[in-house]
Write a structure and sequence with these properties.
The chain is mostly helical and 121 residues long. Helix content is 69%, strand content 0%.
Length: 121
């Protein structure tokens, strides 16, 4: 029902987006540093309490790591939104302002198109 490799990918990606080393995380949680590779290679699950501790450490829900929801419990952002914020944080202030302007223009364009569709309907 659940995909071990998807969970491993979500753990790694979430850690990366938060600037967290998976090896350091696993050591901090007193889990074997090979836990994620073992999960992937053997297709086996870790104990539920270990998965919950990883979720807590990454500040996301277990449901998020299992792929049952796109939103993490703490920030309520989708994976795409979190990735956008991560990339955004690497930009200069000037680049951020330009990007905000472009995003606002796209949002306004979408709203205008939605209004046009409603009038046609």
């Amino acid at each position: 029902m659940y995909d071990v490799n998807k969970t491993v990918t979500l753990i790694k990606k979430t850690a990366k987006l938060n600037g967290i080393s998976t090896v350091e995380m696993l050591e901090h949680l007193e889990l074997n540093k090979n836990t994620l590779s073992t999960m992937s290679n053997r297709g086996s699950w870790i104990k539920s309490d270990s998965l919950a501790r990883i979720a807590d450490y990454l500040d996301v829900s277990v449901d998020y790591l299992l792929g049952r929801t796109e939103k993490s419990s703490s920030s309520e952002l989708t994976e795409n939104e979190r990735e956008i914020l991560y990339c955004f944080s690497k930009l200069t202030i000037e680049q951020q302002l330009k990007l905000i302007g472009r995003a606002e223009a796209l949002a306004e364009q979408n709203e205008t198109e939605a209004v046009k569709k409603d009038r046609v309907s």
